[in-house]
Fold these 4 entries.
Entry 1:
Amino acid sequence: MLSNKTILGYIDNIFSLTKESKITLNQERHYYPPPTVAKFMASKAEIRGLLGAMGSGKSSGCCAELLRLMSIQPKSPDGKRYSRWVVIRDTYTNITKTTLKTWMYWAGGNGEYQEGKNTYVIKNSELDVEIYFIPLNIAKDENRLKSFEVTGAWVNEAKEIKEEFINILIDRIGRYNPPDIISDNSYLIMDTNPCNIDHWWYRRFELRENVGEDNWEIFRQPSGRSPQAENLKYLKKGYYNRMEENHTEEYCKIYADGQYGFLAKGDPVYPKFNYNTHVEDYSLEDKDKKFYSNTYSMSNVIVGCDAGLTPASVYLMRDRLKGIWIVFDEIVLKDESCDAMGEQMLIREKYLLDKFEFCNERYFLDPAGNQRKDTDANTVLRLYRAKGLKAYLAGSSNALAKRREGLRHLIDNGKLKVLRNCRKTIEGLSGGYHYKEPNHYNEDNTKVVKNEYSHVIEALEYAILGARLFEEHILYHKKDNREFDRIMQSLAGRVD
């Protein structure tokens, strides 16, 4: 791994090259990468992402990395290092008023910006470089992108760029071959403020979906409000404090702490949920049976179920060593019947048993489930039991306060973790599950908005209610012993 000093040497080398050329260096910039940016620059991954808070120095780091990559291209027989790059932003205004200005600050007099062509050119005794600055947000831009043959690319504020554009861009890097040279130094580097977890960035960098053989690697900067905050010396004193004064905590979680999040108009039901604290750094499929059997109570799986036109189920297991609960799986259907959900849960039950030896699932339903009929005119409870599922009502009544307070207590006291594959659960807890927005008509804003997240979070709440996790003797049970198993066994069919 390259040290900060070595990386700085690469950057200084860029500037020394210009001194030997006819280009006059207007101002010499020395770049000292923060720790996370240094790791980002040292990576050999072909596709790299830099995620962090607003003002954390991501754009400057990408400018420095682009300069470094130019300097390590192989030399052609004529002694020059040839390369061609494209820099992407969502709109023409943003790329010219923001991205280009940052680039000019660091590149300075190394080359010349040709405004009519939106191209920055470096030509001297050792470098022959072209950098195209283009916006990407309409079909016309997509067609232009398909014509590029470049060494590599930088996507600034990548969360604003559509996934299809990223896929095209991946096909265009490594296509530029300088005279008599075939180079492997082709890279796609990207930076962004955090997005929500339904975004392609999260799916591909964090969950590794659809990455194929490409080497994707992500680098996450620490919170701007933490002792490890990066780039503070280049920000106005109290930068993040003022952000706290002017914005909601949910906004600050995203733009000050660098967390994945969801900005809703109403207050979140679970404001203490923190992506960096509550989400584990792995998905269900990332670990094997041995890992789970050594850590978790695999014979006490609790499943919360919400019926309706968007049925959902959420799966929990208990960490025997830490005494906390893990949300490890979810099923969310849209415009499907409860019968379809029952079939999906049967398939999932068999899969979890065969692959991981999870067993003895108990399904806790909305206490109102015995009043709701599906398309076959059977109650949800009887329907699930008829399929062989161990289904029970979570209680004799909905007990809204108990289920909410129970889940809130788990979250606030660090006793709930969520695996990364449970995207809807994470996004719902991050603010997707929220109260109505206050308004000047003084309408009731204590009611939760019914949306795509309400079903999955209410399923989780029914699991909390059914497993009685609002009761302290269950919540704080430390060891996985016979007594705890007996408590879990006694829950089936128990009512308030």
Note: The mean pLDDT is 84.
Entry 2:
Amino acid sequence: MLKKIAEAVCIYHEIKLESLYGKSRIKELIKARQHYCYIAKKNTNYSLQQIGLEINKNHATVISSINKAEIFKMTEPKYKSELDTLEQLIKTNLVNDFDKYVADTNNKNLITFGKIAKLMEGTLGSQVIVKRNELREMTDRYIRLLEEIRDLL
């Protein structure tokens, strides 16, 4: 389960799994590690040490990441939206087949589930600004669509 969460976080953030395990302090990698630690602790019964071992971090780092994620979730709507979307993707098992891609409507470009999720919440730029309820409705509709597409593959 921890591996699945780590892989889903990497897909969502469009980073390599090795980057999640690494020592780099790049902002996006730190955020990805925070997301991993928070979701792993919230949704599994693994100990802090086990969660940290999956990404080569100690339990103190995991505690710090979880605390920061909780603070950011309360103070930054975008951060909360990212966490909620990522959790929903993991819970609905839409990211369980990591080498599948979904073609866009023109069948010309391929986009990953992570990019789709980011587009849905508007984090690839300012394409769409929506209220939280509208975002939830859009995400729910989109997840149903992805499930239908997955069934067709």
Note: Confidence is low (pLDDT under 50) at residues 94-112, 122-131.
Entry 3:
Amino acid sequence: MATPNGLNRYDGFNFVVYKNIRSDSTSLPANVVQTIFEDHNKNLLIGTEHGLCLYVRENDCFFNYMFEKTSPLRGLDCGVAKITEDASGNLWLATNIGLIYFDRTNNLVKQYSYEADKPESLSNNDVQSVLIDKTKRLWVATRNGLNLFIPANNQFMHIHNDLTYNEDLSNTIFLDMAEDREGNIWFASNEGLFCLDYDATLKVNGLVHFKHQINNESSISIDLVLSLLVDHSGKLWVGTDNGGLNLFDSKNGSFRHYRRDDTDSQSLNNEAIQAIYEDRTGNLWIGTYTGGINIARNSGDALIRYQYIPGSSGSLSHNTVTCFLEDRKGKIWIGTDGGGLNLFDRNTNHFTRFNIDNSNLPSNAILCMIEDSSDRMWIGTWSGGLVRFDKETRSFISINTKNSAIKDDNIYAIAEGDKDDLWLGTFEHGLIHYQINENKFTEYTPSNSGLANEMVIKIVKDTKGQLIIGTTISFSANRSI
């Protein structure tokens, strides 16, 4: 876990906090940790505000490249914001003193920085990010423009030219990025949508700029772009802030708009598109700000919106939607804050409601849901504890402070472990490890483990089995349990 106050490691039982100790050269070089990177040999590299270090697992200490006499990085006191590795296993570091290439094979370092009298140098020394794309090109994002590294002559091409409007893009804020199947890189920004333009030889020409034009109805609907998605068929969907959803037509460079229309029941119900998700059948699930659910079906052009309709028992139970779950059979479950659980029937567009009045669901406030490897469905609620749902009998079994040893009835997050167990994020009692067969609960809090905060709001298990634990003040990246 990278934090502004040290590095945190979870070993399966406790949280260990690593901080800088001035008298110890094998401690963390600085308490402000900016990035963590695992290389192809599974070595853990940490970027801090005072340089790069390597975690030495066998000795539980750090090799500080900026301090060690044998290191070519010795004496380079800089903040390392991002780390990436090339095909040869060498590192590229995004720092506040420029771009640093660390040749680990030959123990050599080369620093690339801005030089006023050299236009081919890096555009700015404050490097925010580095990216190696599918064609092995190195992109460098700074606070003053985008750079493409030209390895043949160790120079940089500055990608700040707007091919469409001939504008200076130095101050543009980029918010999201997506790469389509043809290798086009798309950028969402506060000034519209951009696409990287290059020829068959991969020569970059600049950025093609798509922005709203008052007299052109086929232009993008608004310039503030929040989210991008390339679907399974290769279509680019563009979510905007108060401009609705846009579908890009690559053949003619136009946009089809999906906007809110109060006279059309098949239009969007909200125009602030914060998230776009594609399910396994190709339908788009569109998350909006306070507008409920919108679905764009792959079989037609209509946008279907689902909201709570007073007097209609088959409508969505509540307009505040908190979570989605698509189970192994392809059924869509929707959790709400105030309306309980909903099961969506794709054939009838009907919602089956489960709430405190028509079932033994203990709370109408659903915070999270998962389906485990044994096909069991688990639900986290506010004030109702952890709930196990039997999809066959459609019954709920509540595990709460009154009938079990669990100490918190407010479950923000759930993740499955490796041995018939669950990890629960709670409101006041930190992280709880639930061993299902033993009905045993083990609690990890700041007082007994070094967890940063009692309120755990997110738990994600990555592809390597690590738990990523989010509290209200930090995230923890923990090794496999």
Note: Residues 10-14 have pLDDT under 50 and may be disordered.
Entry 4:
Amino acid sequence: MHNLMTPYPTRLASLLAILILSGCSGHDVYRFRFSEVGTLAVGDAVVLSGVKAGKVSEMGLAGSSAIVSVQTDNVMQLRKDAVVRIVGVGLMGEKRIEIEQGKSGQFYAPGDTIQGVSDAAVKSSPLQVLGELVDSLKSGIQAKLQDSIKILNARIDSLMRSAR
């Protein structure tokens, strides 16, 4: 906080330093190519190694692929072996882009188009995901019930033989 008694040139220099430093935190734009994006939308989060790093700024088509533009919160270096995927984060079909940084010493340049991994888990409908979960549970329960029935039948047979 500046005191009014602070000389004008000092206040001006402080203000100029703040403006210059705030201009140094830039934003990068990267584009990701996916075969499908499900319910991903403009404004959805981009997470790098578990930390929010930006948001989806634009989406469009290029042939049969979806191109998703992402604006980062700060300057970000993406390694050439980074894995980029769309993941579901909510029951209502919310999505986000997750980036797992690789170990490569080579980096993409801002503006590059990077191939994303189209995850089989990217579903367009939460009801579709729920349906698959129910089917999976149903199969597991049926298998357990069949095993239990076999065990019970074997015990009944054993009891019937010993009762004779």
Note: Helices lie at 8-24, 126-163.
